[in-house]
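Target chain:
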Amino acid sequence: METRVITRREQEEEAWRSSHSAKFSSHSSKKTFTSSDEEPSYADFYPIIPGDILSAKEILNMKITPYHRTWQESLLLKEPSYRDKWTMFGNEAEKVEVAVLRNQRALRSRVDRVALRTQAEEKAASDLRYRELLSQRPPDFSVPLRAHCVWEGMSVTLACTLQGCPPPHVTWFKDGVELSRDAGQPWNRRLGRTFGLHTLEIRRCSPEDAGEYRVVARSALGEASTCGTLLVNTVAEEQEAGFSSLFPPTWVKEGVQLRPSGRVEVTSSGASSLLSVKAAQKEHEGVYTLRLAGHHGPQEHSAFVYVKDGSAVVSGGPASPLGVQWSDVNLDYVFLSWLPPSADGASPVQGYFKACHFPVSGLKGGTSYCFRVCAVNQAGAGRWSKPTAPILTSDPLEVTSRQVTNTYLVLSWSEPDPRGPEPLTYYVERSVGNEDRWETASLGAVVSSPLYPVFDLQQGAQYRFRTRSVNKYGISEPSDPSELLSLGPPSEVPDPAHSVLVFRDSDSSVVLQWQAPPGGQEVLGYYLYYSLTGSKQFTAHGLQAQKEYVFRVKSVGRGGNSKYSDESKPVRVKAAIRAPSPPSSVALLMCSGSGMVLSWRAPASDGGCAVRGYYLDQRETSVQGPWREVNRKAVEKRLCELIRMRAGRHLAVAEFSPPRASQLRPLQRLARRGRRKGPEHFRVSAANLVGLGGPSAPSQVFRCEEWTMAQPGCPYDLEPREVRSNSLLLRWEPPIYLGASPLIGYQLHVSQGDQSESWAALNDEPITDTFYKASGLQTGQTYRFRVSAFNQAGAGEASLPTESITALTQPGTREVEVGVDEDGSIFLAYEVPAAAPSDSSHFLWSKDHRQAIDGGRATVQDKDNRSVLTFREASEEDLGLYSVELSDQPGFSSSYQLTAADLERLTELSWQIRNPLVGLRSGWQVEVREDGGVRLWLQTEPLSAGAELRLVLNDREIAGTSRRQVRLDRPSGVVEVLLDPLEDEDQGSYTAQLRDGRARNQFTLLLVEHRFLQTLSQSRANRRNVQRKKGPYFLEYLSWEVTEECELVIRCKVTNLNKDSSLKWFKDGKPLTPTVYDPSSGASSLSIPGVTQEAAGSYRAQVADGRGEDISTLDLLDEEFDKLLQQLSKHCALSAGQVQVQGTSEGLRLYCHLKFYHTYLKTTWIFRERRLEQDSRARAGCSVDTVWVDVSGPVDTDGGKYTLELFDGRDTHARHLDLSGQVFADALAEHQRMKQAALAERKRAKVTKGLPDAVAIMEGKSLCLTCFIDGDPSPAACWLRNGQELSDQPPYSMARQATSSAITIHTVSAEHSGLYSIRVSNEHGGETATVTVSVYRKGEDPPAHAVMMG
């Protein structure tokens, strides 16, 4: 059909061209195109060239100019001059001919285009009229009004849906009285119209609102009406807030009311209601709503509950299946179906036969069952699904048809007729193909229902089935065989969805749209996933405002889940654009008698899209008629001038540009034009990209009468900015009408509360600026403001009050930030919450609240929710007050006063940024390595990859060599110079010059004189040390320490030993022994207990073998030895115990024990805080481990506090004794005892000179043993042999004198050998002295230890 239409159109065009060609070739017609709506033809002004003239193409391509008929006529003329003239004329005519032909072709193309366009427009208009005629229909209420019954104080909305074309006129009636849309309507009623939905909202219903409401729709095609009754019940006493039996709360999940059960528990008490769901599953996810019916209307609160998937039972395991349902319930058979899990885990699901359905047989009749399912993949089994509701197996209500899948067949049959009263069971038999060999298919199973699933069938094979009935009386004959049956094709996984589209909806949601899989595939549902743009992790819940997301969809079928669809285009989560809200506060600013200037406030919300213009409506107050449109072309500004035309009642609208402050002049006279009309109302509607918003409230009554008062008109556009908890900023525009004299200033008034009419002056003196900072406000208090203008005649009319303003700093409010950016430019920045800006939002900056930002001095850059004003070269000209606001949300505003102090501070910081220095972390350091190499290094802040280093030594740039290596580690900022070896030419000044972009710096090291010599010496010593360590060497050199036992220990440790290595000690060149040496560890030590002056000297240790030797020396002389003695004294003093007292025969001894005492340790005794001087009664003394003082002849005055001070050469250590009281008494008593004991000891009998320990005498000689004795009184003496007392008889003879006693043995023999002793005693005591006598024969050797006698 389409080809024929095109062919017919081509034929028509060809015929049309032919007709036009014929017209152009006619000799008689000079004017071809005579249509009234076409332009005049060139044929009206130029003659038509005859058709036998050659075409322009032929003429232009010919080498010889063709002859014209006039030329042939000219040949008849014989005069040459005439021939020449005609030849010239022919040439000129030839040129004209070519031009005319070209114009003809252009004219023909133009006429063709115009004619085609005219035909297309006529056809489109005809189609439009035809469609309008077809779409016409009389009014009809597709959804009529319905009756409502509400409580008093509740709100109700009466609604109906109307269809009709052209749109019918709708009128509302209450009890037969028309309800007006504008004037005379009660405050609580509001009529609404949205497309075909007509609503009547009644707020806070009262008994007066009850009645019959009727809606009448009229059009040229007819009339329709609908009615509904409203009943308002009154409540005698208002109920307290809270849940009660009268208004119980109702919990609803996605339209289904939730009732208490085993898993759902609802608890309501007081003012709270709690819904608890036990063992939550994924099926419990959704929107939960709490509904409460009250006197003031139903209230609902909803929340989306997202149930997160539980962790996998095994790592990589799948999630739980969803929506397990049962069907085809029989006595022993149930069919289960479910949805696959949303997450397959680490591998695809392999369980439940790869299909989401399964027949369960072998159940027990009359028994209640619950079922659940889990998915299985390669990782293991996942979580169990939510259990199904209990199902009781029973006889089916109807017999279902069989089901065929790729894994089983479900057979169904009818029960035998007659059935009989006895219970029946069945046998199922099968046969392969058409064979007549039958086998039992239900072997081992009891089939009680006429449904049975058959498994273990081969794919591609065909089977026949038949059944037998069985009761207690026997088995029936087999039924007729079924037709050939086979397994069905496998359940296919559906294709993924495609064409995923995302649309903005709100700040927390989006609308998704996609196309189903092609080919009519069975799809059970879809899983939706989203991810932040750029992220690889897809989730399924929790969108965040102002974040950008991509979405994808997964199809769900019987065979499982499809692959993911292609990702959608990124979309930012934000509210969709909508029509703007109504403007407000329509005000009359000036009237000249023939026109008036109106202004109004911008809509509170622009709907997320910039307002493109405003439309005004007017209505005369004397005629209660419809509103009339004032302007068809939108007014872009909120200030316009209405000029009344001389004819008719229409108004011409012109945008009004207010004069600048310098151009304001008083209006003396205004010419009056047109005729005066009655009072009028005006209203304004705003329009944006979406469409026209709602109209504003009607204005006050405005009369078009010339203003002649001397006072100025009212200011306009009074708006709040920078609302904070204790202050705000007011801005306004000056009045258009100035009165009889120039303006003097402005007076502001404030009113507290929303509806208060009590106004108080805000400023004492008139202000000349058109902005004012109001401070001292109360936090949380509501205010309204207005402003009046003053001139010499007085105060003019006040402006319209502002909306109610609450003095409160909103959460997230930020102030203007001042700083310096990375390029060193001074900037002011302002940031609003991320969700605040819309697509049409932009930031408005101004200086001193009126002056626009000079583009030559500063630039403004907006990015997302942040705006930055950057000064090109800040100077004193830029000082002032800078303010900023969000274009469509002026509530987000702030200001900053840039002062001279700020400019100075920021300029300094700018210079530092533009001329940066490379930061230094650590200055030049000099390190000598163990191998003798020297490392010079410094560290700066991290450098970029393009940083450069220039190293200068003694005013000469140096580069790296094999001996002098120069390195720069840019990430760490380390500059190092390695000198190996260090030589004399390396002495000097090192300067590292660094450059990193714009940052520069240099650092100098002076390695000269003493510092250089010290470094060189250490470097060479380390190099020698390296050479030394090739053989055995000292890992730890000789060192000394004093132990807690007050011993001096000198240690060293050697390493790199072998079996031939030896270690020797020397003191002052002489070998030392013994020393302790452990070859396995290399540790050796020398201990010197009881250090004396002899320990001073030069100690040396030497380790050597065939590879080399190493020596370590230690000089314990002079200061080092004094240091040793000081450490020894300190340890001795620390080891001292407390001072003790002991009674002696001569008096009292106060003493203190130490582990060791050295004379270097100075001791001082203090008695009663005075030094105890040495005298005849007090004598101090010391020993190796004790320090004491003896007090002779103690008396009572010797009692008191004694202190022993031990000074180790640096510190003083004190020990104390309080010798008083019982301690002093006990010491004196002990002194008396010791004194008596000493006296008795002096008088006691004792042997003063003695006998040797052993004597030897040859046999046959005489032995005389003599000893001296003493005692008072003179002691008695007694000799004994081997413990037996001897008498003065041969061979013994005894002699006694006053001070001695002797015994003689005559002619000794071997039997006289033994232990001889003498015992002396008196009244004070006694003692015994012994001697061993050995008798040997002649020729024998006497004992070696005996004294030879005789």
Remarks:
- The longest strand covers residues 222-233.
- The two ends are 172 Å apart (CA to CA).
- Residues 614 and 635 are 5 Å apart (CA to CA).
- DSSP finds eight helices and 93 strands in the chain.
